[in-house]
Queue: 2 jobs
Job 1
Amino acid sequence: MISDLTRERFAALESFVDKARKKSRDPGRWLVLTHDNPDPDSLAAGWLLVRLLHHAFKLDATLGYGGLVGRAENREMVRALGIELTSIRNLDLSRFRHFALVDTQPRTGNNSLPEATVPTLVIDHHPQRRATSQVPLVDIRVDYGATASIVAEYLLAAGLKIPHSAATALVYAIRSETQDFARESAGPDKALYDEMLPRANKRLLGRIQNAPLPLDYFATLRRALESLQTVDTLVISHLGDVEQPDIVPEIADLLLRLEGKTWSLCTGRFAERVFLSIRTTNPRAEAGQLMRRLVGRRGKGGGHSMIAGGWVPAKTDVEGQQRALAERLAKALRKKPEKIVPIILDAEE
Ligand SMILES: [Mn+2]
């Protein structure tokens, strides 16, 4: 369950903390930061890391996030499990001596750590980025389905018990991140999942997965279905303005389930940015790299093999911009952009 790698990385963190304590009696405060608009994996990983810093090292640690917790399920997760977290807008960063990033890395454009700040610790399962090489403590494992699984192993390595609420968070993080193991073969996560599942609170899990959805969710869903387009095996939907950016990946996931389609693209505008999500059923694809090419130098993006997200600054003509992005993706996938056509859902009577 606890790999040698985890023991090694935990020991490195432990000796870092020991050394810092020897240097000054005040070890300083830690800020653990999720990526912006945090998903269940980022929330669970951050929450578990704060727990580790508190209980294993008696450190003062705070969980922070950028953007907003938008998706109804994620809001319910925070509420039902009592996850304490603070928007970075309400934090004075000068109060913290150490920063840790979970499920994200420095300068990826999807977290709110100031670009000039080098974090002390990065734990992630996305491919390593260049700026991460300056970080003293790095644990990146792309073979893990969820970052939260890596952090959970640290807790076990520290000899700490994982309480029911944390086990519930971990189970939900693994489920949602891997789509119940349908996506990205979650190898090392499986054993941990099996051990944690009996400890998870099923009633709360059910409440999170079936969280009440606001009316604007259904309004956006209708827009998504009205604006469906396709070329070959690619399905596309442009949402226009959205109430919260998390709806973009959520719709991209849904579109990928359309029979006969192996790629999906969803776009939507929020706060002067056009957000994009790409999904594919091909585990050997490189959606993350594709996304980075798509957003170019003006935007930011990244991801794994089958899922990717990013954003570009919104132009005045958002519709034209969304169309251009879809055409570029089609071209990159060797599909003819001029053959993108609407999908009309009205079935013949
Ligand atoms: Mn993740």
Job 2
Amino acid sequence: MSGVTKAVRRTVLSVVRRSPVPTTQLPEAVSILAAMPVAVVVLSEENRFTYANPAAEQFLGLSFPQLAQLSLDDVLPEDSPLFLMVGQLRTGATSIADHDLSFDGPRLSKKGISVQGTTLSEDPGSVLLILQDGNTVRSLDRQIAARNAARSITGMAAILAHEIKNPLSGIRGAAQLLESSVAETDQELTVLIREEADRIRALVDRMEVFGEKPVAMEAVNIHRVLEHVRRVARSGFGDGLRFSESYDPSLPSVWGNRDQLVQVLLNLVKNAADALIAGGALESEITLITRYQHGLRLANPTSDSDNRVELPLLVVVRDNGPGIPEDIRPHLFEPFVSSKPSGQGLGLALVAKIIADHGGLIEVESRPGRTEFRLHLPMLAEEDAQ
Ligand SMILES: Nc1ncnc2c1ncn2[C@@H]1O[C@H](COP(=O)(O)OP(=O)(O)OP(=O)(O)O)[C@@H](O)[C@H]1O
Ligand SMILES: [Mg+2]
């Protein structure tokens, strides 16, 4: 749970329970919640509204005195996925985030809603929800726009041509090393050359029907993918940069396409390397992280809205470079957006497309000294394993 959610939870609890809180603290707690630009509501065990901040009143289109007379059933249709989420919170989940929900009730009709829910352990049965509409969750919108842009046929062809370059530079770098290195290392480099050559072949094979042909999904060990990408980077564009890893060794396999995941991570690591080299930071470092993280779910793009996929596998590529230029940010995942003299601006469009095809989600956080691309990916589902 984020620090903000924790702080909100504590404050809400003070407001809802009133009595145990020293009265001197109460106005402060109320005004903090009132000032928050996100909608915060608390539901009782019977799903009645016991608290709503002003942003929530605006979001729901009802004042708190009105809401206090109502329960969630009065606002949303009974098949709303929000009921499922609230139920899961009451039966053990401590925190869940759900994106891209539609609220379609008699009093409320909104699309693209993100909800973060958490239990109030000190107040059993009560559930706290933070609601954000599509405008607030702009990064998600951007992703969807990027998805569409990358799907255009021309964009697709350009992306493919672009993608042939990365493995080729890996091959060239490795071959160069081979020439000047001693015999012992030859074998590892030969393996690298073979793997990269295979990848180009697989890409070119797909060229005719790129975008049409469904890619083969399998259980992929993401740590092997990361190590492969690191080796390619080391022997090419990332030569001389420091890499560090923080892996969760018990992480289950990703349900995905190995070659495509290599492409995604190669692009993210290449961007990090570019930023570090251009930024000239003294202690340049690329950090690769994997984690298991409960709670983030997304509507399955290939099925109806009630079928939601959990994305518990987190893969992070972090660098300590200068950060993403301000003017690039609103269009980050669109094709042909680049701040580099020789950049094509296709890397992140490709990343967005592949992650979308995997049913995953990307988050970006960037400030000078720390840029982080976080991939949330699905794991092997039981029905896929059979
Ligand atoms: N880790 C990062 N740090 C700072 N800026 C970044 C980072 N990753 C991406 N960017 C910014 O986003 C832009 C778009 O990245 P993208 O990978 O799509 O294209 P590119 O790297 O410029 O070109 P290409 O990948 O086609 O060679 C980059 O030009 C850069 O300005
Ligand atoms: Mg790039």
